[in-house]
Amino acid sequence: MWFRNIFSPKQQAALPPLFNEAFLRRLERLSLQAQRTLRGRPSGGAHLSHRLLPTSIFSDHRPYSTGDDYRYVDWNVYAHQDALFVKLGEIEQDVNIHLLLDVSRSMMWGSPPKLRAAQLLAGTLGYLALAHNDRLHVAPFSAAVLREFGPAHGKARLIEMLRFIEHVQPGGETNLRAVLDGYARRHPRGGLLVLCSDLLASEGLEEGLRAFPPPIWQVLVIHLLDPGELNPERLGPIELEDMETGALLPLVVDDETLAHYRRNLTAWQRGIESACGKRGATCARVLSTWPLERQIIPYLRARQILT
What we know:
- The chain is an alpha/beta fold.
- The chain is 33% helix and 24% strand.
- Mean pLDDT is 81; it is low at 1-12 and 47-59.
């Protein structure tokens, strides 16, 4: 069994404290749900492609062409029709998995910090990508994309990937449009993109997602929020500090203020969902306090993000 090798004392490969070996073992039965339209390589991946290619397990035929592999000729058809036909079927392929991880200062807010939930999610999805022979890219970002991990392929890169995610450093403001535009230009082949962010600076989200058109790209936006952001308390006179810019705002948090806040919160959430819908992206709202295995994973399975 692979875990027996990768976690053996001889390897001296200890899991980062953020991640749990027993939990990763239980992830073996899950996989990311990639659309068949994504372009991949027929190299032992776990995702079906919509392309029909020569294969021993077939659902269609085409006439034989010079250079075709004789192993895929349907000799039964040849015996009846005296003509050569090649068996075609859906192949399994690997795909590019891109994890964009927001590490701006606002992600450090909450208890636990939203960044911790984002790291756990990124580690989980990254593990599934490596375990199913996909090509994994992990890109932390704030105002720009920071040092990336990958492309990585195969379980041998698991410990390196988890350590990379655990040691990302938070800081800076968010510039979603610049981050998304630049990332799409550097990865023109497309793939499955997972954007994990609190989207507090959501300006530019719709314009940025324009750079990831289907069917080349499949986009999942995981919107991470702390429960305190959805249901703030009535605190009276306070001074708010923007965690990204440091700007201060004197405010009296009373019933009228909270009512106004909730109206704006609803409009903001609807705006994000609308921006994702217009660009063919799936939006999943996740609370940072949800237990990963008991709530987040069942939620993503119900949304057909995991299978």
